[in-house]
Design brief:
Mean pLDDT: 92
CATH architecture: Alpha-Beta Barrel
Number of strands: 10
CATH topology: TIM Barrel
CATH class: Alpha Beta
Distance between the termini: 17 Å
Radius of gyration: 19 Å
Number of helices: 9
Helix content: 25-40%
Structural class: alpha/beta
Low-confidence stretches: 6-20
Shape: globular
Strand order of the largest sheet: 4-3-2-5-6-7-8-9
CATH superfamily: Phosphatidylinositol (PI) phosphodiesterase
Length: 264
């Protein structure tokens, strides 16, 4: 009975805050391919997402958002104006946080599609006006947005970077190399490379144990873990929470946000 009362109180509290126009951060939420939504970044922020991912394209010494080079010809979205500028405005508006009184990090994943070295060099120049907002273990521990570099990762340049503003999205094989958490705070992998769902798109016990093992390996090195290419259903999401997966990947923003708001 007590648990039901606590849940009811929690829901009423959330509803009251929403009614006042205050968006609450939703832990574990990750917006995959965020730029494909009707309002890139803004839809995720309106639902309290704490992590978003954008594919980065290089076009004439400028950074755009899209999945492949053809997107540059159809509807190019400027990375700075779609992501960095509005995040910075929000950071300033909410007393140096992305959500009011939210002390944890907001994750901005950049999935570089090609020419990683060139893109990273452009990013170094692009982030200069926004460094007050960006987290760096070395230079700005008060920053609230962590940039993670995925996709075409220029590893030599990332490892040589002394600023600490660019964090490496690792792979399970990187666990054997014992990279420092400050450089590689996350491990990511295609779910199909780790475990397989059954015909109902959730994990049987043997497959669940495979994922449990990887999660434990990551957490032993103080790294967080994220999977991509995951089915979208509540039963699997519940298993992810039980396993303590740090971020749950989704293209269905409203559905995941609703689930996470009522499941802890």
């Amino acid at each position: 009975m007590l648990n039901h009362r606590m849940l009811l109180f929690f829901l009423c509290w959330k509803i009251s805050l929403i009614a006042m126009g205050q968006v609450l951060p939703v832990p574990n939420s990750h917006a995959h391919n965020d730029y494909l939504h009707e309002r890139p970044l803004q839809d995720a922020l309106a639902l309290g997402f704490v992590s978003v991912e954008a594919d980065i394209l290089l076009g004439e010494d400028h950074l755009f958002v899209g999945h492949n080079r053809e997107d540059l010809l159809i509807k190019p979205l400027d990375f700075e104006s779609v992501y960095l500028q509005p995040l910075y405005q929000r950071y300033l508006a909410h007393s140096k946080s992305i959500y009011p009184e939210y002390g944890d990090l907001f994750y901005l994943w950049l999935d570089i599609k090609y020419d990683g070295a060139t893109v990273l060099n452009l990013l170094k120049k692009l982030i200069r006006p926004y460094r007050k907002m960006l987290f760096s273990e070395r230079r700005n521990r008060n920053g609230r947005v962590m940039i993670l570099i995925s996709g075409d990762r220029p590893m030599d340049l990332l490892l040589a970077d002394k600023s600490g503003y660019f964090h490496i999205d690792g792979r399970p094989a990187d666990l054997l190399k014992s990279f420092d958490r400050a450089r590689m705070p996350f491990i990511s992998q295609n779910m199909k490379e780790v475990c397989s769902t059954n015909e109902n798109d959730y994990l049987d016990i043997s497959e669940k144990n495979k994922l449990v093992k990887l999660v434990e390996q990551c957490h032993q090195q103080n790294k967080k873990i994220r999977l991509w290419a995951t089915p979208e259903n509540e039963q699997l999401w519940q298993q992810f929470l039980e396993i303590k997966l740090d971020l749950i990947n989704t293209d269905s923003l409203q559905r995941l946000a609703s689930f996470l708001m009522t499941h802890k």
